Amino acid sequence: MRELCDEAIAAALATGASYADVRAMTRRTQSLATKNGRVEAVADNETEGIGVRVLVGGAWGFACDRRLTPEGAREAARRAAAFAAAAAAERAERALTPVEPTTGTYRTPLELDPFDVALDDKIALCLRAEEGMRAAHSDVKVTSATLRALRERKLLVTSDRVVVDQETVECGGGIDAIASRDGVVQVRSYPSAHGGASAQAGWEYVEELGLDREAPRVGEQAAALLRADPCPSGVTTLVIDAEQLQLQVHESVGHPIELDRVYGTEAAYAGTSFLAPGDLGSLRYGSELMNVTADSTTPRGLGTFGFDDEGVPARREAIVEAGVLRNFLTSRETAARIGAGGGGSMRADGWNRMPLVRMTNLHLEPGEGSFEDLLADVDDGIYVETNKSWSIDDKRLNFQFGTQAAWKIERGRLGRMLRDATYTGITPQFWGGLDAVAGPEAWRMAGLTNCGKGQPGQIAHVSHGASPARFRRVQVGVRS
Amino acid sequence: MIDALEVAERAVAAAEADEAEAFVHAERSGLARFAGDEIHQPTLTDNASVQLRVARAGRVGSATTNRLSEEGLRAAARRAAEAADRAPADPGFDGLARPAEIPRVEGFDDATARLSPEEQAVRARAAIDAADGLGVYGYYTSGVTRLAVASSSGLRGEQELTDATALVLAAAAGASGYASATSWRDGDVDPAAVAREAAEKAARTRGAVELEPAKYRAVLEPYALSELLEYFSFDAFNGPALLEERSYLAGRIGERLFDESVTIVEDPLDPAGLPKAFDFEGTPRRRVPLVEDGVARGAVWDRSASARAAGYESTGHAGPPEMRIYGAFPIALSVAPGDAASVDELAELVEDGIHVTRLHYLSVVDPREGIVTGMTRDGTFRIRDGRVAEPLVNLRFTVSVPEVLADVPGLTRERMLVNRSDFYGERYPFGVLCPALATASFAITGCGSGPGL
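Output (structure tokens, whole complex):
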């Protein structure tokens, strides 16, 4: 593939491009879904191709070709340059932060390749977990289980003499139980909703999840929700579990700190940001207990790599320190524009998409104490677990989340179960109400595989870590 | 581009199986994305893949590849056979796709298919130049998609379709407006006109004020209504969701649920939409009544789910394999028009309420009750004395869609095809054909950011 990439770089530079990067990729994905005791779908997909991005006259162009051949490489480069030339207006050459010429490799550390696990063993795991949910209660009417695996080989070559060869492996899964009775329908999932959780790791990660082990609890709780009272409306103290808090971090911190959004290039679709370039180093994002880190080196993170899609090495950097904004997520171009950061967050969804500024792994750093300690200081409040619905405005200010399960907190302890819990807020005020984060023992990381952005649309796989945390003065129980 | 049917036939021939079915999906497209005054993310995509399903001794397996050489197809056939052999036998297996009469549909325009990247960039530039001093954010895209299906039982079908969309957010600090146009004919899409509509809307959004959360009468433009109905349809008009009681329509088929002015059909064959001849299982697509004069009539089905549900058959709404666990989804919702001559006339019917141009980031809060939350954006206004009045900030809504549709003072005569594809994955353009709608109840539950950048 190295020769193909060199061919594409040469073809791009021959058109007058001032910069070019080329990604030659192969990707195999396997997804398995069972539902109500039968195999619903087994999809085994492979795709390969080459994507070429160029700068011509200060304008970007991108084109791709599924053929991993010299002709395909040259054709993609030629078309990318032609599209860039057609798109170009009169403008100065575009500045990019420098990147060191590098030859590097990266491989996901793993014990057991998920593609080496027999499909019938995977199916058996799903069916076993489903049976565990169904057996838990007769009100469980629909059960499902999913497993997924991905292997991606990517060779990146740039005209800045970066040559990076990376192979990543991901796997994960999840289970869902839907219970219904008398027109009330409730769902319970593990380890998270919307397709479960994933990690950049071997099959040992899926074994650790224990989908079949957790299934009876999931089924029991789905049925129990049918008999629970709806979450009351009001302003109260809210304790959020690690899984829901991971999504809260994703939506209300991860997206606003993408510097391309700050500069407006996502305005028409994903939206912009309430943050401005001048907020760097001064904006109070939340309370002093709020510490958020972007880390593309986190073991098992879906956003972990050796180098991003511009050849910038992986790094760990503070985003929010003691509640103050310290960094944005940047590309080489946006970093040059703001004069801070050095890129490192450019990621493309496969060979046929252009790299965008994306989250890598973004974590809420742990505080201290246990989950029980969080509850102990709550006389009257709500504890919520596992995302059910999520929505946030185009500047990432007004959000509303629903969770699958909730419990009343009374005099420092969990009380009765509640259903249909929602909470809403405005991002900086909400994080300003953060008054406790549980310690490292309660810190959990999970990967999600459905983060959408860009036109044409791209899906990113990212991980977030968090410990359960406590927020004061939160509006819960939104009614239609 | 490839000959999609020829690839599908070669894939079936490569299969080592009792039965085999191949679905080919090929795309050649350009999307010139712009922001501010520049085209900043121009993307040309050229891809083709084949999904091969095989049945061996009652066991089904599948594999997908974009390596279309003989060796690539043989490798996919081996992976599909291995998957089948590892799967448990499915006693409910109803066989793979059988010969069927594929409907002839419109949806291909040669001029659109022949648009060059340079011409796509010219159309994007036309939108940028027409925005009257405001920054524009959006894209112009056009593409050709070829679909083909073949099976060992003799099914053969193919379709070539085109699509073109111009989408524009015109924005500055404190002001933003939105417009889009889509068609399978590029000639129907005027990027400059779209930009002017967005800019005109944006100019009226300066000085936006907050609104007290409450239920309001409202006018929903087609951009807003189409998205709300799409999210509602994920469960409400999803056949398997009826059986699983996730759907609001579960147990309510035949009942009057909505205002009698509300009629919704799923019409993938309508040339006014983005027509599709067959689904991802090769089943011919059908027109399906969903709501007639406010009465719930039905939902859409795929083959595997309908085979397990007595009294139902596929309506040609199977999605790609990885989506089938979620059921069957409409891809061409069509809402019947009303009598109102214009959106302004709907405002007169509303008298006191709000005007909503576009929605943002919707999420289903409760599928069984049809509750959806999201934000308004890029053109939200107060309606006072039957006229559009002051601009409002982006509003959080949490609505029961059945309640929104229960009392409908009016719908416009004119309908609009709204593109609902964000072009994730392989290109499969789809949209909603709908009028603007006035409702007696739209629940606002909070305020968010103001319009603009």
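Chain A has a mean pLDDT of 96.
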